[in-house]
Amino acid sequence: MTNWMFAHPSPYLIMSEMFKNFFEWLIAEKIVDCESLRSFPVQALEILSLADANNYFKFLGRKKYRVSKKEDEIKQIDVKTVNRHKSSLRSLSMFCVSAQ
After folding, report:
1. How many CB atoms lie within 10 A of CB 16?
2. pTM summary value
3. pLDDT tens sequence across 13-51
4. Beta-bridge partners for 66
């Protein structure tokens, strides 16, 4: 019997992974000038444009992934997954605004 806590990660863990992916994308695309996540300037989020966020969602919509290591089947990320990323970044934005 599988322990359900390990079978289903915490929603907070999933959201933090989404934030991490977004921040890494901002760095890779040179939208934010920094060397690593450790040196990510929080102030960069204040001046981030809506166009940058929309470009990230377009990037996610085009992203593909391998279904398994054994098979060569490749799938496109589902629209629901992109919407979950939008929701998590909206939550981050709301948190940043309320923390000021």
Report:
1. 13
2. 0.79
3. 888 999 999 999 999 999 999 999 999 998 898 888 999
4. 74
Long-range contacts of 21-29 (CB under 8 A, 24+ apart): 21/85, 22/56, 22/85, 22/89, 25/56, 25/59, 26/52, 26/56, 29/55
Contact 66, 72 (CB under 8 A): yes
Residue the block writes with tokens 């322990």 = 3
Least Cα distance to 46 among 29, 26, 28, 24 occurs for 26
* Residue where the block lists tokens 């966020």: 53
Amino acid present at 98: S
pLDDT tens, residue by residue, 55-86 = 999 999 998 877 777 778 888 888 998 999 99
